[in-house]
């Protein structure tokens, strides 16, 4: 539908000008247009140009909304993580015991390591998941990637796991689910897989024969990640669409 909207103005221009060219072909000579005809065709072209500009503006608005949605997704994930690690509220004491009070001991606050080093078990889990993926054991790979994220969504391999979850669905040709999972990569503010995910969004749409959406995502890759290693590939893909 969106692709049809983009080419509609050009189709209309051809429809407007076709009678002129057909008339000249039938008569067999170049008959110049009178002033009234020129004004009519110029008016038609101007109107169609305005319609095309309006459609392009609508596409720009959609791109802006998508960027806002992604920012909102990041914000919601941050809130979810904050609630996940928030200590449970202690219920207030409603009765006073007559027994002698025991000396209070200062509770030991459990802290989460902020070290940039990945624990060996998580690294091993990630490596195992990658190996399962390489061996095309996709259900097992998917399970392991999801397990790692569930154990700690904030460690430095989580965004990679999210990306590979998308790759798993892509490899099994479930492109609709792959789109959803690749979109989740953008919820990780410090991810280094954002341009990878952006490329895959375009490839998913190509596989789904949605060329208009593929062009949009690949163009976004070029504009948002100009230094990405995938820019040349994106340009080649755009030329074929």
Quick recap of the structure?
The chain has nine helices and no strands. It is mostly helical and 241 residues long.
Q: What would the principal axes of the Cα set say about the shape? A: elongated
CATH topology of the largest domain: Serine Threonine Protein Phosphatase 5, Tetratricopeptide repeat
Strand content: under 5%
Main CATH class of the largest domain: Mainly Alpha
Q: Tell me the distance between the termini.
A: 16 Å
Q: Whole-number radius of gyration? A: 29 Å
Uncertain stretches: 1-5, 84-116
Number of domains: 2
SSE sequence, one letter per element? HHHHHHHHH
By DSSP, the count of extended strands is 0
Question: What's the helix count?
Answer: 9
CATH H-level name of the largest domain... which superfamily?
Tetratricopeptide repeat domain
Mean pLDDT across the residues is: 75
Q: Helical amount among residues, as a percent range?
A: 55-70%
* Major β-sheet annotation: none
Corresponding CATH architecture of the largest domain: Alpha Horseshoe
Class based on secondary structure composition and strand pairing: mainly alpha
Q: In terms of topology, how is this protein built?
A:
Elements: H1 2-27, H2 35-84, H3 120-134, H4 138-151, H5 158-171, H6 175-184, H7 194-207, H8 211-224, H9 231-240
Helix pairs in contact: 1-2, 3-4, 4-5, 5-6, 5-7, 6-7, 7-8, 8-9
Give your account of this protein's structure.
The protein has 241 residues and is an all-alpha fold. The chain has two domains: 2-76; 120-240, Tetratricopeptide repeat domain (Serine Threonine Protein Phosphatase 5, Tetratricopeptide repeat, Alpha Horseshoe), CATH 1.25.40. It is built from nine helices and no strands. The chain has helices at 2-27, 35-84, 120-134, 138-151, 158-171, 175-184, 194-207, 211-224, 231-240. The two termini are 16 Å apart.
């Amino acid at each position: 539908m969106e692709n049809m909207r983009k080419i509609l103005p050009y189709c209309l221009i051809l429809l407007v000008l076709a009678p002129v060219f057909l008339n000249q072909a039938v008569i067999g000579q170049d008959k110049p247009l009178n002033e009234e005809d020129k004004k009519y065709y110029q008016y038609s072209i101007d109107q169609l140009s305005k319609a095309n500009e309006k459609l392009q503006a609508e596409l720009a608005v959609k791109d802006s909304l998508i960027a806002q949605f992604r920012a909102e997704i990041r914000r919601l994930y941050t809130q979810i993580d904050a609630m996940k690690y928030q200590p449970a509220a202690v219920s207030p004491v409603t009765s006073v015991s007559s027994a002698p009070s025991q000396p209070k001991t200062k509770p030991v606050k459990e802290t989460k390591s902020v070290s940039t080093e990945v624990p060996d078990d998580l690294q091993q889990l990630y490596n195992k998941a990658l190996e399962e993926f390489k061996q095309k054991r996709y259900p097992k790979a998917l399970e392991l990637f999801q397990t790692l994220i569930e154990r700690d969504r904030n460690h430095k391999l989580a965004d990679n796991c999210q990306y590979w979850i998308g790759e798993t669905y892509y490899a099994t040709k479930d492109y609709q689910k792959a789109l959803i999972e690749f979109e989740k990569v953008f919820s990780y503010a410090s991810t280094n897989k954002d341009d990878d995910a952006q490329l895959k969004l375009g490839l998913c749409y190509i596989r789904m024969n949605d060329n208009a959406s593929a062009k949009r995502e690949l163009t976004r890759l070029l504009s948002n990640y100009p230094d990405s290693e995938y820019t040349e590939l994106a340009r080649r893909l755009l030329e074929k669409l």
